[in-house]
Amino acid sequence: MDVRSTEIESVDPNRVGGVERRGLSDVLDADAVTINHYVIAPGDRISGLHAHQNQEEVFLVLDGAVTLETLDGTVVVDEGEVVRVAPGEFQSVTNPHGDPATVLALGAPRGQTDLRVPVGCPECDAEVAALDFTGGDERLVCPGCGHDREAACPDCGGELRAELDGDGRPVSVCLSCGVRMRER
Ligand SMILES: [Zn+2]
Ligand SMILES: [Zn+2]
Does residue 10 sit in helix, strand or coil? Predict the structure, then answer.
């Protein structure tokens, strides 16, 4: 029998801000699918707005509710509901609700590294950048003209995260100094 099970609570969590992530892919020897279990504190989010060019994602809400930000608006996903995000679709799973949210996230195929963020190019009219981690530091690379820059706050060097602004357009927010930049 080639079957493997695990108690989710027994997996050591990785905590970033108000997000607790338990990676289950390796524990389960999963080859084809990425599996993560998240507990998201009120006011936090799994990640900034991003798109996987070659991976579809499914989020199953086990407890509480999340709001999925997309470039076409938001979708509330309640406990007991499941949502699928197509490859290439920008999304950010947020918890603007009053209680913690627990979410199981599945992504397939596993091991895809072609990640895009909704950040425009300073040199051409491209409205999306590829996020490149391969050199160690995060870089924004324009798929149109190849323009390459560090993905960091120009004011303080802090980490940037794309999110929907009040008007439904993406904005880059510095997690260190809080500066908000409209980049497309
Ligand atoms: Zn460009
Ligand atoms: Zn900053």
Answer: helix
